[in-house]
Specification:
The chain starts with 9 loop residues before the first helix and ends in a 10-residue tail after the last helix. By secondary structure, the chain is mainly α. It is extended. It has a domain of 61 residues. Helix 3 packs antiparallel against helix 4. It has 5 helices and no strands. This is DUF2795 domain-containing protein. InterPro entries: DUF2795 (IPR021527). It holds the Pfam family DUF2795.
Length: 117
């Protein structure tokens, strides 16, 4: 038996979400389904920072880690990284090796999430 995808897409998801709203509830109590999500960022980072770090990570192949600046740039070029990503990687200090995208992100002067204790 063949099974289809369970993903619906943003339009149908929005329509389905409206089905679960309480029609008796006052308008101000209804969720704003078009509003940006809150709580999507870990402590110590904004949602935009998480998105930027994720975008950077999409252009760093695992085969380039651990790697230095030059290895990361070569890897990013194999994934057709945009020029701004290549420029960021070119700004890394020479001679340093990075094991993770988090280490690269921090070396570029950004903050990672705070560790929970």
């Amino acid at each position: 038996m063949e099974r289809g995808s369970t993903k619906h897409g943003p339009v149908l998801d929005g329509e389905m979400a409206h089905e679960f709203q309480d029609p008796q509830a006052p308008v101000e109590d209804q969720p704003d389904l078009g509003a940006p999500r809150e709580g999507g960022a870990p402590p110590g980072m904004t949602y935009d920072e998480v998105e930027e770090r994720s975008r950077l990570g999409r252009y760093i192949p695992r085969s380039s880690l651990p790697g230095d600046r030059e290895e990361l740039i070569v890897g990013a070029n194999t994934l057709a990284a945009p020029e701004d990503v290549i420029e960021q990687l070119a700004g890394l200090p020479a001679g340093e090796r990075y094991r993770t995208v988090n280490e690269i992100w921090a070396a570029l002067g950004h903050h990672n999430e705070e560790r929970r204790t």
